[in-house]
């Protein structure tokens, strides 16, 4: 959401948040969706700026931070310190951000978010563009609209618990000349705590109110997308557990597919070249792979094992910037295990010369 790398430090996260929050603050940005975007940016910063919340998110994804109230998320953040002098209202005690973050308290709860991974080749990181993703998720049953009852029928309130889903057992006890009332609350055994009974279950969902469906949608991969960056698709998460509630969001986490030619390190790429000893000693001109084809590299005489040559601008695009990373070529030596008689004789001559 903030467009920072997974290993970004506190300063990078704070700088990215301030830049985006000022960009999408409704006092400055009047476009449709800016207000919602502002809220999402603030929530992302609240998670990433707190080491404990960030660790929960890194280990468990959005499930690790689900259920946090606005007070849990923003209680320790001094927005005035971050935005001092910006001229906008960031007061959590009753200002604009406070209104955004507490708005969800009114009306049915939203459904939970869903997180999926999509693997893309390095070439797509370079070009960006549309990427089709498929995933399975629960969805509200279209036949019963989530009620669980067959079309034309409705669930009825449980007569045992009066629709509360609970049974309350009350006992009065005498203790030290005082009468004490003790209540024990348990789930209703008749409706299993649901508060209603379905006499005619929906045949499509077997009375669950949900079905498993496969969704396919297209997301836009930004050029230079960072490893592990999450792209948000509104309204494609889990359905709400409450009637009339909005579904959660889908977060598509972008990963780079393995490439036998390269290892990715941010916007830089690493390539390992196996070099014969003769070429390392005498030097050689090599053709090494790049994402744009091949490039010529001059290996100087006397190159040592694990030496690294740098090809500027041959890496991946930098996210949000105009530059590109570099390609690093690491040299490893190939020592022949099987020599012909002629090769062995030459190596013996060489050893005699070096020894002399």
Question: In words, what does this structure look like?
Answer:
The chain is an alpha+beta fold. The chain has four domains: 1-106, Helix Hairpins; 110-146 and 209-255, HSP40/DNAj peptide-binding domain, CATH 2.60.260.20; 156-197, no CATH class; 263-355, Urease metallochaperone UreE, N-terminal domain (HSP40/DNAj peptide-binding domain, Sandwich), CATH 2.60.260. 23% of the residues lie in helices and 29% in strands. It has helices at residues 10-24, 34-48, 51-60, 70-74, 79-82, 96-102, 122-127, 277-282, 341-355, and strands spanning 114-120, 129-140, 156-157, 166-175, 178-187, 196-197, 210-221, 230-233, 250-256, 263-265, 268-276, 284-290, 293-299, 308-311, 327-334. The strands form six sheets. It has a four-stranded mixed β-sheet. A hairpin with a 2-residue loop joins strand 4 and strand 5. Residues 85-105 have low confidence and may be disordered.
